[in-house]
Write a structure and sequence with these properties.
Largest sheet of chain B: 6 strands, mixed
Radius of gyration of chain A: 13 Å
Distance between the termini of chain A: 37 Å
Oligomer: heterodimer
Structural class of chain B: mainly beta
Number of strands of chain A: 11
Radius of gyration of chain B: 13 Å
Number of helices of chain A: 0
Helix content of chain B: under 10%
Helix content of chain A: under 10%
Low-confidence stretches of chain B: none
Shape of chain A: globular
Strand content of chain B: over 45%
Order of helices and strands of chain B: EEEEEEEEEEE
């Protein structure tokens, strides 16, 4: 099976702009989670989707949003970008979304906000 | 929410020695504890995981132990090799669906 894929791999934006990142899970996986990785804060949970429903959300401002489509592909959107949003954004998929199961990560999208 | 603390933040060992990384968690309802290895510029990869109904799990040179009473779990790597050099993350997941990660341990194995 193909692994988790993310597009684009790299993005450069300026403050105030918005950005949309995409994640395609492993075929058959129904749960997609998003994480932000920065040198100072490590890996932080953004939100999780299962069957097009957001089930859990991390402690991030409302500028961060996401959605999941019927084919399990997911997008996350960040509006009104700030310098501090520069990070590696990782998505991860799991099969049944039951919690105690392996999450497989994509390669990430590296976002730089100038 | 869940809080996961990881120590040490950096660890340097000689090839062939053992490496131990320790994590503690706060939510007693957490029931799944994976460990991920992330090499520079690459995605995190699961190396081993343990569920709360198990105290220890081994996979070749890697082992994980879990003490539910004390709410801590540890990663043990024996006979370390230079290719083990990477950042290792512990994580815990509870009744929700969010993996809460430790801040990571940068392991350097010197020949």
């Amino acid at each position: 099976k193909a692994g988790v894929t993310q597009t684009p791999r790299y993005l450069i934006k300026t403050r105030g702009q918005q950005v949309t990142l995409s994640c395609s899970p492993i075929s058959g996986h129904r749960s997609v989670s998003w994480y932000q990785q920065t040198p100072g804060q490590g890996l932080q949970f953004l939100f999780e989707y299962f069957s097009e429903t957001q089930r859990n959300k991390g402690n991030f401002p409302g500028r961060f949003s996401g959605r999941q489509f019927s084919n399990s592909r997911s997008e996350m959107n960040v509006s009104t970008l700030e310098l501090g949003d520069s990070a590696l954004y990782l998505c991860a998929s799991s099969a049944a979304g039951q919690g105690a199961e392996t999450q497989y990560f994509g390669p990430g999208t590296r976002l730089l906000v100038l | 929410g869940e809080n996961v603390e990881q120590h040490p933040s950096t660890l340097s060992v000689q090839e062939g020695d053992s490496a131990v990384i320790k994590c503690t968690y706060s939510d007693s309802a957490s029931n799944y504890f994976p460990w991920y290895k992330q090499e520079l510029g690459k995605r995190p990869q699961l190396i081993i995981d343990i569920r709360s109904n198990v105290g220890e799990k081994k996979d070749q040179r890697i082992a994980v132990t879990l003490n539910k009473t004390a709410k801590h779990f540890s990663l043990h790597i024996t006979e370390t090799q230079p290719e083990d050099s990477a950042v290792y993350f512990c994580a815990a997941i509870g009744p929700g669906y969010a993996l809460n990660f430790g801040k990571g341990t940068s392991l350097l194995v010197t020949p």
